[in-house]
UniProtKB/TrEMBL annotation:
Protein name: Flavin-dependent thymidylate synthase
GO biological process terms on file: dTMP biosynthetic process; dTTP biosynthetic process; methylation
rRNA-binding is among the record's keywords: no
Active-site residues annotated for this sequence: R223 (involved in ionization of n3 of dump, leading to its activation)
Family membership: Belongs to the thymidylate synthase ThyX family.
CDD domains noted in UniProt: ThyX (cd20175)
């Protein structure tokens, strides 16, 4: 179960006691507050708090008080201009605090984004639950033959069953030993901060993650990309749902100028201009490597 009974009771209590405020609120975000979006087999993402909305981005860009006399249409145009020209500071005026439950190996990828405030559940003080990420059969893949950090074909039949059984057995065996080291009858037991080192990286952890919108969108641009690892991409997809309701104008601009856009090198632009003129273009004539040429072809063939 992604949320335990205590967390469910806390959420119910918070949602049953709404607070009045004079600060700006996002109606789209209000419906997400405290609700958990299930991710993977035991994980979730839920909004704990937020600050700002689309108007806050424009307010910061204009350095004005309140909404001023600008129309919503003008605000959307300004936000698109800011996104299109890679202005960052106005987007930093919005912040979000998330509660995330995720496998440790996903957390190790996630924490590489060092532009957030993080407080993680401590296995030095508490005992971790027996919850492990076990991929669904359709996400058990072989190693890619063209990408050293990617996946290839889906494993099937006996091979898939063999791998899944190993994952389950090893996870439970490690947790059995974790419990035994901590609380073996008649012995003092090993300190929790040492016993945890025997646990596998597919065990679940939790953290609070607070980040401004600019850095959040950078995270989403990388982790919601189709090339990102599936297990972190599904978390990014869940967060995208929240951001789209929180700051709809900013998210639409983000979709158009980041998620749905591509970045071309100078050599790629030479190749593209040549193709548009009907010229014969090759990787060698444009000074591109074989891999860059493949990436260029993927861009124009998509």
């Amino acid at each position: 179960m992604p949320l335990n009974p205590d967390q469910l009771a806390e959420i119910q209590d918070l949602r049953s006691s709404p607070k009045q405020t004079v600060r700006a609120v996002s109606e789209g975000m209000e419906k997400h507050l405290y609700h958990a979006i299930d991710v993977l087999d035991h994980g979730f993402v839920r909004v704990i708090d937020y600050m700002g909305d689309d108007a806050a981005i424009c307010q910061a860009a204009r350095v004005s008080y309140g909404k001023g006399t600008k129309s919503v249409q003008n605000d959307e145009g300004l936000i698109r201009y800011l996104m299109r020209h890679w202005h960052s500071t106005p987007f930093e005026m919005c912040e979000i605090k998330l509660h995330v439950k995720l496998p440790v190996f996903v957390a190790r990828q996630w924490i590489r984004h060092r532009t957030a405030n993080v407080n993680e559940y401590s296995a030095r003080y508490s005992i971790l639950d027996r919850e492990f990420y076990i991929p669904a059969p359709e996400h058990v893949n072989a190693q890619s033959v063209v990408n050293n950090q990617g996946r290839g074909e889906v494993l099937e039949g006996e091979e898939a069953a063999r791998v899944l059984e190993i994952l389950k057995a090893d996870s439970n065996r490690a947790y059995d030993n974790y419990e035994a080291m901590i609380s073996e009858e008649g012995q003092l037991g090993l300190a929790r901060e040492l016993a945890r080192m025997n646990l596998p990286s597919n065990i679940y952890t939790q953290w609070y993650w607070k980040v401004d919108l600019h850095n959040l969108l950078h995270f989403l641009r990388l982790r919601a990309d189709p090339h990102a690892q599936y297990e972190i991409r599904v978390y990014a997809d869940a967060i995208c749902q929240v951001v789209a309701d929180w700051v709809p104008a900013a998210y639409k601009a983000f979709e158009d100028y980041r998620l749905g856009a591509v970045t071309m090198s100078a050599q790629m632009m030479v190749a593209l201009r040549g193709l548009l003129k009907g010229e014969e273009v090759t990787a060698e004539s444009c000074g591109m490597s074989a891999r860059e040429w493949r990436e260029f072809q993927d861009m124009i063939d998509a």
